[in-house]
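Private note to self, pasted from the team thread so I don't lose it. Backbone tokens:
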């Protein structure tokens, strides 16, 4: 008998995602100037107000207020009638330095472990499967696709759906066969904020539903995945005019399931946004995804879950767990696969940071539409180095501007496939 599984995504204009994007924009500003900066930045957004709090230790000169306003403006909150906009909202900044006790464990050579230790204890998960071309579960992949395209229409093809506002949520239910094959989309729920463009709210609702059905969905959902029984629920309350931080207060780190696998895989509980890569909540979760995706792409298994666990201040993980759900194509137990991965990959935080090149301003794009299942891209940024010159009149600061390149979503690269095939003696490619 078939079964159903559901995942949700939220748009960049959702209050919690506004907070995530501001926190990661602050992180990027630090990383662009000081790749070794320590950042733990939390954001709260509500009616007419942004609060930035956290611990940041850096030599970078960062205008936190301006970064918050730029981020809000880019998302699309640029009008006073939204009751939250980039130009008129208040911005409160209360940021201090990283705790010296934590720094002791993550500064190389200062703690009990001579290497750069993990920034905290905890467990992180990575997952991959053959369900979609992104090696992601279909429900979360399709929910992200729908909302990304909705944002594209709002920003770049305004004439198609001119009433759109930034806040939106999407939930996708997929029907699966007993063997785990996705059969069809069972239900799509889409709530999108909109202008009050007609006096009759029922007429507004009919127009939005028609546009979603005829304009939005055909762009992103394969026709064969929808049939006459697929349910489409658009703005099920009837209207969605009030939204964003005016309707719901947003906080960094409240959409961790949206950020990962839509509930299809476990989550260790640690959020990503606003954290520099010495925080294994972030970097180790990326590394676990990297290993899982390359294992599946290499044909070692059709579905892989990886858990890695750390102790604060200790560099090497205390445990590595692998589950292939009985889909492995190699004559090894999951425990033996885990042992081999420990030999193949260096999972110390410093090694992860170096291997994935995480000390760069690559984090703002991760803060909406998922950290996993994305396409790596090369970006160019300006690194600003402050040089202090001693003069007879005292120290003088000079700023050296250098063009640098970095790669976003490096944990999505499939650059370990051949190495893994050789290590596991896999000779045939398993097709999707």
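Design output:
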């Amino acid at each position: 008998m078939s079964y159903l599984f559901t995942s949700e995504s939220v748009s960049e204009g959702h209050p919690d995602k506004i907070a995530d994007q501001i926190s990661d924009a602050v992180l990027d500003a630090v990383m662009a100037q000081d790749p070794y900066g320590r950042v733990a930045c939390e954001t709260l957004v509500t009616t007419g107000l942004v609060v930035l709090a956290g611990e940041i230790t850096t030599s970078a000169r960062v205008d936190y207020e301006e970064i918050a306003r730029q981020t809000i403006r880019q998302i699309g909150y640029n009008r006073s009638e939204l009751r939250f906009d980039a130009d008129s909202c208040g911005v409160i900044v209360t940021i201090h330095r990283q705790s010296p006790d934590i720094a002791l464990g993550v500064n190389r050579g200062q703690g009990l472990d001579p290497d750069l230790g993990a920034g905290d204890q905890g467990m992180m998960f990575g997952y991959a499967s053959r369900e979609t071309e992104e090696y992601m579960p279909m429900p979360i992949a399709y929910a992200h696709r729908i909302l990304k395209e909705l944002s594209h229409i709002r920003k770049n093809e305004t004439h198609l759906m001119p009433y759109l506002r930034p806040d939106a949520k999407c939930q996708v239910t997929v029907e699966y066969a007993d063997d785990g094959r996705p059969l069809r989309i069972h239900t799509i729920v889409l709530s999108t904020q909109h202008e009050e463009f007609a006096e009759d709210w029922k007429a507004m609702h009919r127009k939005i539903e028609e546009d979603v059905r005829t304009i939005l969905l055909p762009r992103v959902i394969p026709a064969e995945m929808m049939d006459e029984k697929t349910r489409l629920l658009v703005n099920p309350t009837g209207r969605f005019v009030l939204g964003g931080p005016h309707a719901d207060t947003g906080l960094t780190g409240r959409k961790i399931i949206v950020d990962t696998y839509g509930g299809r895989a476990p989550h260790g509980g640690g959020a990503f946004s606003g954290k520099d890569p010495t925080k294994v909540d972030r970097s180790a979760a990326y590394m676990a995804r990297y290993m899982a995706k390359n294992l599946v792409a290499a044909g070692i298994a059709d579905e892989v879950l990886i858990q890695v666990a750390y102790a604060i201040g200790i560099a090497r993980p205390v445990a590595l767990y692998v589950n292939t759900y009985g889909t492995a194509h190699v004559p090894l137990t999951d425990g033996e696969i885990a042992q081999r991965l420990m030999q193949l990959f260096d999972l110390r935080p410093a090694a992860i940071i170096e291997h994935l090149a995480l000390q760069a301003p690559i984090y703002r794009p991760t803060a909406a539409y998922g950290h996993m299942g994305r396409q790596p891209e090369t970006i160019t940024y300006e690194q600003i180095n402050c040089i202090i010159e001693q003069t007879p009149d005292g120290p003088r600061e000079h700023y050296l501007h250098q063009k640098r390149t970095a790669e976003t979503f490096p944990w999505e690269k499939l650059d370990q496939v051949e190495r893994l095939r050789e290590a596991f003696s896999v000779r045939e490619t398993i097709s999707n």
